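Figure S7 source data.
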Amino acid sequence: MEQTVWVNWEVEYRDVQILDSQNRVYAVFNLTRNDLAIESNREILKQMFLAAAKIVDSDKDRLPDDWELRYFNKLSGNPADDPDSDGADNFTEFAFGTNPNDAKSRSSFQPRLVRNGQQSLLTVPFRRRAGGGINYIAEVSADFKNWTRSSTEITAASIKLLFDGTGTSQATYSLKKPAEAQPYSFVRIRALPAVQ
Ligand SMILES: [Ca+2]
Ligand SMILES: [Ca+2]
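Tokens for the predicted calcium ion complex:
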């Protein structure tokens, strides 16, 4: 039976389709016409990937164009606004991958205790933006007043790429001190715009 997938999908044999953050075709690079054994072709393909992944923020309010257009259909969203009145401003919604127009869309923090021999360790997985643009800072406190970023108390984040089309990754921090040890420790995650 004759297959017409090439026509239906509008692709050629050995096409590389590069998608943007909204999964739209950004560029097409054919590996038959552009032999990757030639270094200049590898460089062109690399630059296409970098251009497709570039964060564009035309109005320089630290909310990328594609995110503002997706949720507000315009670029006039303000990072400090809270249109769904859920207590999280737009920058926080962007940083933690939630919908700024839906108060029921909550951040994905799921703290849990993970057994480690006779002890339990507090582990905090959550969704964050993949890539750069935002610094995530994990801090520890015993009294909710004094917060420290001590690497002796909390592990560096492990990052799991999700590849689910949302542009987010799962980050996980763990306290190094067993959960049974006193004084008890609290963890908070802050998201700050990276200086560019
Ligand atoms: Ca913007
Ligand atoms: Ca909000």
